[in-house]
Every structure is written in C-alpha cells, then in structure tokens.
C-alpha cells in the first residue's frame, strides 16, 4: 500500500482507500489504466474491479443472488475456465465458501457457459484463503472471481490484471551477470523505485548500484538512470545487465559509460551538481551472510562500519538531491539471540542530513521501517525507509 500510494501520488492520480484487510485493499481511482499498472507495480499480485458488494450477514443468509441483477455474468463466452479467489476467508465458514462455489457454478451455466470448467483454487503457503494462481489466469485464460471481506462487507468482482511475474523472473534469472547473495530481488527493487516517487524522464540515482537491479527497474519505469559503485567489476556488471535489458525488453539505455561510473557514494557531489538528482533508490549494505543468530553486543559491533557508511552517504545524497526529492533505501537489521532485532538509528542520520520521513497521504499512521515477509530463518533482514529532502 505504501508503494501504491507513493506511485499514485507522484503521478497526481486522485484516489481513496476505503478499506484494508490482511491480503486485500479496496481503492477508488479516478484514472484506471490496467496495463500500465500491471507493468509498474512490484508489490501487487492482482488488481480487479468490484462489481457489487453486500453485507456479510446477507451472504450468511445465502442472498448472494443479488448478483443476478448486476450484469456480473455478461462477459462470458460459451467455454470458460473459472475459479474463485478468497481474500478474508477468516470471516466465512466452509459452508459459505461451498455455497459461493455452487452458486457461481449454476449461475455460469445459466449465463451460457455450458462448457465452463471450474479450477480448484490453491492455498498459498502460510495462508488460509484459497486463490487462483496468476499463472492460471495469464496462461490458461482462467476467469478469476474475487471475493474479499473488508469491514463486514463482502466485495465481489473480477481480476483485471495480474503482476508481470514472467518479466520480473526474466530480469532476475535471464541477465548475463547474476549474484544472488548480494543482489536485491527485482520485485523489491521495483517497489523501491516506486517509493522513490521517480516519474518517467526524471533522474533516478543508485549510489550503491551493485549489478544494477534497481537501475534495471528504474529503466523499466521510464526513468533516466545514474549508477555509482566503488568496485569496478560491479560497474562493468551493471553496464552489461543494462545493455542486455535494453535489447531484451526494448527500453532505451544509452550513454551507459557516462551514466554508470566507478565512484564513492560518500562523495557524490564530485560526480553530480548540487540538486541535480530527482530521486534515489538504493540498498547500500546488508552485511556479510551470518551462519547463526548473534548476541546483541556482537550485532552492535557488526553495525559500526555500516552506520559510518550510511551517515556519510546520506549527507552526500542530500547534497545532490533536489528539494522535495525522495530517498528509498534499505537498511540492515541483525536478528539477535534470543529474539531481538538490532540496527542503528538511521532516522537520526537522515535528520542530520536534512532528510525527513516521507509518509504517504493515504497512510497517515504508517511507520517506517517496513519489512518484506520473513521466513524466520534470516539472520540479517531488510528494513525499508523512505525520506524526503526538507
């Protein structure tokens, strides 16, 4: 939701958030461009359109037949694969879920889908609700009926688009240089790009570019990119990956020798004029892989050097960043024994550099950092922060 809010705000798209549960959000958009959003958002799995809603009490009374008057079934061909994805099933009983499936099965046949085939939804790992997988929707042309329970109402609709999973996978596993241990996943890189608020044509800087994953996603988003890395081999890797991206995805990537350079992120003003950069997205350092959880004192020692690098880099970033520009970055958090989580005070470092917390207007109570979903076995985890130049 932070990504969506930042993405829409930067493009001045009016929107309202009407409700959120653990797995779905209800959003009203003034302008809805499905294809563009499918390619642009990293953190979303599906986007659908609500066709009707009813109180959950009516569903419990088996009054979902209100759908008969909504035009819900006017889209169907004679032969269609279909399934139901539940988001918020904790408020629905097994009997209610079976009732919905039976209702749709009968109603689809009455609508003319006499050869319709029901695809049983799967239950993702650690999730209670069944859902139709995006691969089935995209490749097998399955109509996905959405059922989301939010704030005591049941919203029903159809999936319009699914995330570009194949594109993200190709940009991860198909590029010429891969370094899984140090590289950020492309979907998370796209989230950072969107959180930075960069718009097509604006300059996005990654001062710790590594093998160029964030810059790849910046190019895919239409940004003009600049990258810096202290190591020459990383600079060459980034250039190779960006050249490959240009050819494979037909995006413009010119002047890579000048735009991706070897340099020190703590001295960016040596390479860029003051306030020349529109947005920054970066993952400076995650620490070396740890074999086991460490005591709190050892975590403090491990974080001393990264804290110095972040402090100097944030000051340097602030010099070259335009007023109002955002910095979306990852900071390392060390998991300690028995169940602790330690990092340095990055907010203090940012404040000293003239940067303040960016809070999306639609999420006034949100607090940084945000953490990607964890398995519980990670020794060092990513904490995401977004700051804006005061």
How would you describe the overall organization of this protein?
By secondary structure, this protein is α/β, with parallel strands linked by helices. It has two domains: 45-162, no CATH class; 166-389, Vaccinia Virus protein VP39 (Rossmann fold, 3-Layer(aba) Sandwich), CATH 3.40.50.150. It has helices spanning 2-10, 34-40, 56-60, 94-110, 134-139, 165-173, 186-195, 213-220, 232-249, 256-259, 296-302, 304-320, 346-352, and strands at residues 15-20, 25-29, 46-55, 81-87, 117-118, 142-150, 153-162, 203-206, 224-229, 260-262, 277-282, 321-336, 340-342, 355-357, 380-389. Strands 8, 9, 10, 11, 12, 13, 14 and 15 form an eight-stranded mixed β-sheet that branches. Helix 7 crosses helix 8 and helix 8 packs parallel to helix 9. The longest helix has 18 residues, at 232-249.
Percent in helix? 25-40%
Number of domains: 2
CATH class of the largest domain: Alpha Beta
The best one-word shape is elongated
Content-based structural category: alpha/beta
Q: Averaged pLDDT, please?
A: 87
| SSE string, helices as H and strands as E | HEEHEHEHEHEEHHEHEHHEEHHEEHEE
Q: Count of helices?
A: 13
Beta percentage is 25-35%
Task: Give the CATH architecture of the largest domain.
Answer: 3-Layer(aba) Sandwich
Which fold does the CATH topology of the largest domain refer to? Rossmann fold
Rg for CA atoms: 23 Å
CATH superfamily of the largest domain: Vaccinia Virus protein VP39
Number of strands: 15
End-to-end separation in angstroms reads 24 Å
């Amino acid at each position: 939701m932070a990504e969506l809010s930042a993405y829409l705000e930067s493009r001045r798209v009016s929107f309202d958030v009407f409700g959120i549960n653990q797995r779905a959000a209800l959003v009203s958009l003034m302008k809805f461009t499905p294809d563009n959003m499918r390619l642009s958002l990293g953190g979303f799995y599906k986007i659908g359109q609500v066709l009707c809603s009813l109180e959950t009490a009516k569903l419990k009374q088996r009054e979902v037949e209100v759908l008969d008057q909504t035009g819900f079934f006017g889209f169907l061909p004679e032969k269609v694969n279909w399934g139901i994805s539940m988001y918020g099933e904790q408020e629905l009983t097994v009997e209610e879920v079976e009732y919905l499936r039976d209702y749709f099965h009968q109603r689809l046949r009455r609508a003319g889908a006499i050869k319709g085939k029901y695809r049983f939804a799967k239950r993702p790992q650690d999730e209670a609700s069944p859902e139709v997988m995006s691969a089935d929707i995209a490749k097998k042309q399955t109509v996905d009926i959405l059922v989301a329970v939010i704030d005591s109402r049941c919203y029903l609709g159809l999936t319009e688009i699914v995330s570009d999973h194949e594109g993200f996978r190709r940009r991860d596993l198909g590029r010429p240089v891969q370094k899984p241990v140090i590289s950020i996943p492309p979907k998370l890189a796209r989230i950072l790009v969107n959180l930075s608020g960069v718009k097509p044509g604006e300059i996005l800087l990654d001062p710790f570019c590594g093998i160029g994953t964030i810059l790849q996603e910046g190019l895919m988003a239409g940004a003009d990119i600049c990258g810096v890395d202290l190591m020459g081999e990383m600079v060459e890797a980034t250039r190779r990956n960006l050249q490959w991206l240009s050819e494979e995805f037909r995006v413009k990537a010119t002047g890579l020798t000048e735009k991706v350079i070897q340099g020190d992120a703590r001295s960016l003003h040596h390479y860029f004029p003051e306030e020349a950069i529109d947005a920054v997205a970066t993952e400076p350092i995650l620490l070396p892989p740890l074999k086991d959880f460490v005591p709190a004192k050892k975590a403090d020692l491990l974080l001393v050097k990264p804290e110095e690098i972040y402090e100097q880099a944030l000051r340097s970033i602030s010099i070259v960043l335009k007023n109002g520009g955002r910095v979306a970055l990852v900071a390392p958090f060390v998991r300690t024994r028995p169940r602790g989580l330690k990092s340095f005070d990055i907010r203090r470092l940012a404040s000293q550099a003239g940067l303040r917390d960016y809070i999306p207007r639609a999420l006034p109570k949100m607090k940084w950092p945000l953490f990607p979903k964890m398995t519980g076995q990670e020794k060092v985890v990513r904490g995401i922060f977004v700051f804006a130049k005061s």
